[in-house]
Every structure is written in structure tokens, then in C-alpha cells.
Amino acid sequence: MQYKTETRGSLSYNNNSKVMNNMNVFPSETLAKIESMAAENAVVIFSVSTCCMCHAIKRLFRGMGVSPAVHELDLLPYGVEIHRALLRLLGCSSGGATSPGALPVVFIGGKMVGAMERVMASHINGSLVPLLKDAGALWL
Amino acid sequence: MQSSFKTVPFTPDFYSQSSYFFRGDSCLEEFHQPVNGFHHEEAIDLSPNVTIASANLHYTTFDTVMDCGGGGGGGLRERLEGGEEECLDTGQLVYQKGTRLVGGGVGEVNSSWCDSVSAMADNSQHTDTSTDIDTDDKTQLNGGHQGMLLATNCSDQSNVKSSDQRTLRRLAQNREAARKSRLRKKAYVQQLENSRIRLAQLEEELKRARQQGSLVERGVSADHTHLAAGNGVFSFELEYTRWKEEHQRMINDLRSGVNSQLGDNDLRVLVDAVMSHYDEIFRLKGIGTKVDVFHMLSGMWKTPAERFFMWLGGFRSSELLKILGNHVDPLTDQQLIGICNLQQSSQQAEDALSQGMEALQQSLLETLSSASMGPNSSANVADYMGHMAMAMGKLGTLENFLRQADLLRQQTLQQLHRILTTRQAARAFLVIHDYISRLRALSSLWLARPRD
């Protein structure tokens, strides 16, 4: 529960104030692109096609009966920019090299949940399933 | 293990023999104490005096004495033969017999290689004397016996003759026994010699391994990360041992708290302490994973049976919940649903991580095999190096997988703690601990099983 509110809070913080102040770091079109991509489906995963943890999280959702929309950033034209922006959103200021766990990043109902450990933690503490139901990704 | 099983039953036998020896002669009781092991001479020297002083009546008594003495010798032989199969055993056995160390003997001799070997060396002396005395005793006994016979029935020639024949027969038997005994002694000495050589070999191997170890350490001393990895693994094992001891202590407290119907508030303190102590092992494992992910993945710090159930460097959360089963009932419907959901979600998370690991192996395999192999493998060094770098990058993901698996375990324990009441959580921790203790006991039993 605490994870969910925390991430939502940090995301809105990033969207509203920080982004406005750092236009050069966060080009608004990249953020807008992420937002529109995240809204495409109840569950959206930003992934890298060769990443094994991304593979694991896709299997996790499919195992739960959810079919997420997957954006493979290494296969997209603006993938690198999106990746960088996602890392900023997650709060990984040091970049991808020192935190290999940054991707995959999961959005549910257009809102960012976080990377693998956030998703798994909310699944174990029972908050993921209600979230998926609210977003219309799960019916039962 | 084996030697202690073997030696224990012999001791009473040995005692019964010596008590037989002095049966019916209360005046000799005082000699019972100083007579040690198989040093029969003293007893034998005394016996004729006693017999001569007494009447014929003692003749029969002495016959029994002799037979028993012979039987005892036989017993010794059996023991020696039994012992010769394993010379470590013999060492301990003879040590016990020679000096009558009954209880502590095995443990002391077992304490280290060097000890047992020195004990063996000492005891070879013991064996020598005891077997020799054994045969000498018989002769002396015969002599005494014969003299006694003459004293009682000196007028009867035929009796003397038959006694002569008996004596001759017994002397022949003695010679035969002595010959066998010498052969056994030879075999035993040979066995000792073999073990001495084996020990020397082992010592040599150990020395070489030590040298190699120090060479490796010196070789990589420039490479600090390697050295740190070695130290890190070592310090993790140390920390883990310390953690295990602390955990045991906490579990003991918890157990006595549950048994003594401690109040909920006091019990909560104990349960929370165990819970945060679990957090500590996950923190330690996190450090260990950073230092040497393969070591953590191998589970070499756990017992074999624990390793058998290991999944990504630890227990499977879903399995833990299965173990709890009906040990924490009665559960409310809500709790039951919570546990079921937890079991399902931990299972799903485990499956996902397992599939991720499979993907990792698969892609590593593809990366390594895609670089040109075979006859012209040396053709493109750059290609080779590129693929190796890629493979290294993939291996780096391993650390992440291990971290996720530990997070899953930690989260499961925390959620379990949230679902259960304090008393139920206390019982759950005890059940988990008992289960792991059984796994460890099983490992010990398995490792100590007799192997032929």
C-alpha cells in the first residue's frame, strides 16, 4: 500500500513541478510520449528485448492472466530518450549503468508503479491485484 | 561415528572378564583394582600361592579361570581382528583397553588427526605387550595348573601322563595361538604403516593446497576486487554462523515465551525481534551477492539437504507457506484467504523469476556460441572479445535476480507476519525453525552414514 501511494506521489511531483523547472533535462515531448504510451493499455511495460528481468516481469503478468502492452525500447526510434526519462522518473539519477534493475518499468492504469521490485512487493503485499482490477486489467 | 558404535559394547565385556578371573576369591578382590587391562602377570603370580594354600576345591575354580582367561584372550583376538579392518578404530580400541579409558577415550582420540595418530603409535606398544602377555599368561597358567595337579594327585602316574599330554596339547595350541598372534601383529603394524603413509600424503596435499592458495592470493593482490571477493565470502560465512547462533537464541526465547503463555505484548517484542533479525540476514546476503554472486547462488554456506531445496540462493517462499500448513491453526476465514493469496502470488513471482533465469541462461548460451568457434576461432579476436563483454554484461543480471529472489522471500515473511496474530506468528517462526533444523539434522545423518 505504501509503495503505491509513494510512487504515485513521486510521479505527480515529477510531472507537475520538477519537469517544468528542468525543461532541458526532460524535454516535454518525451514525457508526453511516455504518458501517451502508458495510457495505451491498462498495463504497460517499458522493456528491453534482450533484458531477462523484463522477460520475467512479462511472464509474471501473463501468469496472472493479464496481457500487458510491451514497448521494447531498444527497438523504438526514440528508445534511448524514453529510457533516460524513465530512469529520471524512477529517481535513478546515476543512470542505467549502476542500477541494472531500472528496467522494466511498469505502468498500471496510466500511473507508474515502478520497476521489478516494486511490482513484486505490491504483489506479495496484496495491493497489486486490486490495482489491476481498478485499471480493468483483471476481471476476477 | 563408527568407532564409537563399536567400542561401547566391548567395555562391559572386558569388565566381566576380569571379574570372572577373580570369581570366588574374595581375598583377591583388592587386586582387582590395580590390575589394569591385560597385565595378567601380577594376578598369575599370585594365583598359585592362593591355590596351594587352599584345598582341592579351588582346582575347579581355577579351571574356570583358565577357560575364561582363554576366552578373554579370544575376545581380544576378535576385537583385534575387528579392529584391524580399520586402523583408526584399532587405535582407539586398544587405547581404551590398554588404559581403561572408558567414556572420554573415543572423543579425545577423535579430536584431531594428529592426536589419533599419536595415540595409535602409543597403542601399538600396548598391543604388542598385551598380545605377548596373553600367550605368556597361558603358559604360566598351565605351569601353575600342572604344579597344582601334581600337588594334589602326585601318586597317580596315569593322571600325570594324561596331564602331560594335555599340557603338550595346550603348549601346541599356545604355539599356534602365538604364531597367529604374531601374524596379526604383523598385519596390524602393516596397517599402521599404511595409514602413516596415507597421512604423510594428506599432509603433503594440504601443504601444496596451502601454497597454491597463498600463490593465488599473491597473484591477485594487485587486483583488489578478487581479494575482496575471497575475504567477502569468508566474512559472509562468519556473519552467517553468527546470525545462525543469534537466531537460535531468539528462537529459544520465543519458544519459552510461547510455552509459558507470555502476554501478547511481551510476545510481540520477541516476534518483532525475530522478524527484524530475518531482515538482517537479507541485508548480509545482499552484501554477499555483491561480492560473489556465484558463491551465494551455490549455497555452499548451507547444509546439503538445505541446498537440495534451494532456489536462487535461498528457500522458496511458496514452500515455506506449505510447511506452515495447519501448524498455525485455527485461522479465521480472512486469514485463510490472505495466506492462500500470499501462496499464490509468491508462487507466481517465483515462476516469473525462474523463467527469467532460464531466459538468462539461454541468451548467455547464444551469446557464447555465436562467436566464431572451431578451427578458425582465433581468426577474429575482436569478435570474440565483443561477445565475451556481452556475456559479462548478461552475467551481471544474475545479481539482480538474486536480489529480487531475496526481496520476494523477505516480503513473504513480512506479509505472513501481517496476516497472522502475534501468537500465530510466533508459532509460525518456531515451525519454520524446526523444519530447517530437521533439514540440518538430516544432512548430518546423511554425511555420517556408513559407506562401504
Task: Give your account of this protein's structure.
The complex is a heterodimer of chains A (140) and B (452). With 140 residues, chain A is α+β, with helices and mostly antiparallel strands. Chain A has one domain (28-135): Glutaredoxin, CATH 3.40.30. Helices cover 51% and strands 12% of the residues of chain A. Chain A is built from six helices and four strands, in the order ααβαβαββαα. In chain A, strands 2-1-3-4 form a four-stranded mixed sheet, sandwiched between helices. In chain A, strand 3 and strand 4 (111-114) form a beta hairpin. In chain A, 39% of the residues are buried. Chain B has a domain at 232-310 and 317-372 and 380-448. In chain B, 83% of the residues lie in helices and 0% in strands. Chain B has 452 residues and is an all-alpha fold. The interface between A and B is medium-sized, with 23 and 32 residues. Chain B: Its main location: nucleus. Chain B: InterPro entries: bZIP, bZIP_sf, TGA_domain. Chain B: One of its GO terms (cellular component) is nucleus.
What would the keywords be for this entry?
heterodimer, A: 140 residues, alpha+beta, Glutaredoxin, 4-stranded mixed β-sheet, 6 helices, 4 strands, 12% strand, globular, B: 452 residues, mainly alpha, 16 helices, 0% strand, disordered N terminus, transcription cis-regulatory region binding (chain B), cis-regulatory region sequence-specific DNA binding (chain B)
